[in-house]
Amino acid sequence: MDGLEFASTVGSLVAVEPEAEISAEILAGPSKIDVIPKDVGPQKRSMPKWETAARERVKVAVRRFAKPLADLVERDANEGDTRLLVTDFLCEGLGYDKYEDLTTEYQVKSDFADYGVRIDRQMVAFIEVKRCTQKLGIRHLRQVQMYAVNEGVEWMVLTNGQVWQVWHLTGGLPVVVDIALEVDLLSDATQAVKASSLFYLSKDAVRRRLLDELWKAKAAIAPRSLAEVLVSDVVIEAVRKEIRRRTAYNSDVEEIERILKADVLRADLLSN
Fold this sequence. Notes:
Number of strands: 8
Radius of gyration: 21 Å
Strand order of the largest sheet: 3-4-5-6-7-8
Mean pLDDT: 86
Distance between the termini: 20 Å
C-alpha cells in the first residue's frame, strides 16, 4: 500500500505509519514480554549446570556492557561502532562463537543481512543492527522479515545495542510475525530481570528450543488467543448458565455472542 507499512502479528495484518516505532499498538499481543525467570517462584527447581552457567554469563554481560553501551548512546555512535558492541555481547554474553556461529553480511538474494546465526551448522536466525540511537520500527522488521522468508528461517532479531527484540515468523499466506521478547539494557529494570529475559536468546537456550517454548507460551495467552476462547461455544454456554444462575434470565447464546463481539471485546482481536 502507498504510504503505509504493515506487519503481520498473531493472526492479523495491521497498517502502520512507515516510521512508527514498534510498540504494543501494532501487536495483537503484548510488545514487551515480562519473562518470569525459571528459577523464581514458590517452588524452585534444580537447574542443570549448563543453564546456571548460561544465566550467569548473561548476567555478567548485562552488567559489563552497561557503561560501554551508555557511552555509545551518549556520543550517538554510528552503526559500525554499534555492531562492534553487538558482536561482543553476542559472543561474551550469549555464548555464540564469532567464527563458527556468526556470519556477517550474509547474502540473501541481492541484499545482505547484518548477521546470520548458525547453530550446529543450521541457520536459525537473522539479526539486523541499527545505530544505538535509532528507534526500532516496522520498516526494520520488514527488512529482516524478508531475509527470514527467503531463507526459511523462523527467528529474527532487531537491535540497536540497547533494545533487543526477538521475533518469530510462521510461514503462510500471509506470514505471521509475533514478538517473543523485548529487553532494554538501559531501562530501569534490574540487571537480573534483563538477564533472565535475554537468557532465552542465548545459544544454549536456542539450541535446546527454550526460545520456542517461551514464544508458544506467550502466544497461547496473547489477547487474540484469549478473545477466540471467550467467543467459543463452550465458554458462551458457560456464560449463559452463569447469567441464569445469577439473574434467573435464560438468555440466548446468539445474543451473548453478539454482545461480546460488539460491545465487550476489541474488534481487532476477533477473526474476520
